[in-house]
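Lecture notes, unit on protein representations.

Consider one protein chain, 464 amino acids long.
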Amino acid sequence: MAATDSAVERIVIENCAIATVDANDTEYASGHIVIAGNKIEAIGAGDAPENLDNVVRRIDGTGHLVTPGLVNTHHHFYQWITRGLATDHNLFNWLVALYPTWARIDEQMAYSAAQGSLAAMARGGVTTAMDHHYVYPKGAGDLSGAIIRAASEMGVRFTLARGSMDRSEKDGGLPPDHAVETLEGALADTEATVKKFHDASFDAMTQVAVAPCSPFSVSTELLKQGAELARRLGVRMHTHGSETVEEEKFCHELFGMGPTDYFESTGWLGEDVWMAHSVHMNDSDIAAFARTKTGVAHCPSSNARLAAGIARVPDMLAAGVPVGLGVDGTASNESGELHTELRNALLINRLNPVHREAALNARQSLRLGTYGGAQILGRADNIGSLEVGKLADLVLWNLSTFLHSSIADPVTALVFGAAAPVTASFVNGKQIVENNRLLTADEDAIARSTREEAQRLARISAQA
C-alpha cells in the first residue's frame, strides 16, 4: 500500500479482535487497524498492509478487543466532590438536600471535580465526554472555562452543555434563590460561551450545547429563548426530561400537560435535541421523539440509584429514537464510569416485564455506548464507529486475564463480564491511557485535589 502522505505518522495495531460498530456491525476475529495522524486509514482482517510509510509504532493486540471509544452523553462533573451523600433519597428530595451545597462551588472546585470525573471516564475507555453544568453561583469565577481546561488537559474530546437555572424556590422551583441566574444573564453568558469555545470542525475537540437544566428549575421563557439561541448559533440542545413521576406531576400541575408535550410547546423536540433519562415515557411520547428524532441519554445506574424507574429503551430503539449512554453526575452514580453502564444498561432493561431477556443484547449495548452516543451528540459522521476516514478514537480492551479468558465471544466478554482493563485508549490519534493508567494526568494528584476540595466545600456549606 503506497501512502499518499509519507510524512504523516502511522500507528499499526494487529492481531486483535475488532468490533467496528459500523452500519453492518462488521467484526473481525483477528484483524488490524492503521492510524494515520488523527484518522483511521485502514481496517480489516488479518495483518496490516505491507510497505506502510512512517510507521512509528506497532502494537500487538493479541488477547484484546478493539472498539470505538466510548461516548458519554450525560454527566455533571462538579458532583465528583459531593459523592456519597443523600444515598437513600429520590430525585426531588436528593436535589433539595444537595442544592445548598452545590450553590457554594467555585472555579477551583469545578476544575478539580472535572479532573476527577474525566479521569474516571478516560481510564475506563471514554474518548468523548460531556458535562451538563448548570450551577453558576454569583462570584464563583469562570466555571465553564475551568471545566473545558480540565478536558483539554486530559486529552478527551468534549462537549460542554452550558446549563442554566432561573426558577428558584421563590418561583416554585427547587434550587435555592442564590443558586440561579437571571433569564437575561443566563442567555447572555451561554451565547458568550458558545462563541468563545464551540468548534464546528470535523475533528473538533471542544463543542458547546445550550442546556437549561430541567422543567422544574427553569422558566418557560428560558426554554423558549434557549431554543431560539441554540438554533441561531447552530449548536445542539440538551436538558433533563421525564426522569421521575414527581416531574410528570409537576409539569401537569404547573403547565397543564406532561413533559413531552411541554417540551414540544417550547421548541424542545428535534434532531438537534437530546434529553437525559426519559424514564417515564408513554407510547405517544416515544412516537413524538421518533417523529422528531429527539435523542435520549440513558443513565441506568443513576436511574436505579434514585429509584427513578426503568426507561423503555427497547421500545425507543424499535421506534427509531436515537439513544446513547450516560454516567450522570457522580452524586447519583458514585463510580463515575461509563464502561460499567454497558453491562448495567443490558441487565436493568431485562428487568422490564414486557421484554425480559430480549430487551437488549451485548452488541446493542455496545452500540448505545459508542455510535448511539455519537449520534445524539451530532458527531456520528466522525466518531462512534471504526471506519476508514473517521477520527482515531478507539480502545484496546484486555480480555486475556482470568476475568474474561474463558468467554469465547469478545463482545460478550466486554459487556457481560467484569469491567475490562484498558491497555490503550486513543483520542484523535493520541494515546491517553496505557495499561489502565492515565498518560495525561497524575492520578494521585487528582485524588489529593478532589479530597481537599470536597472537604473545603463541606466546610463552607456547614458554615453557611
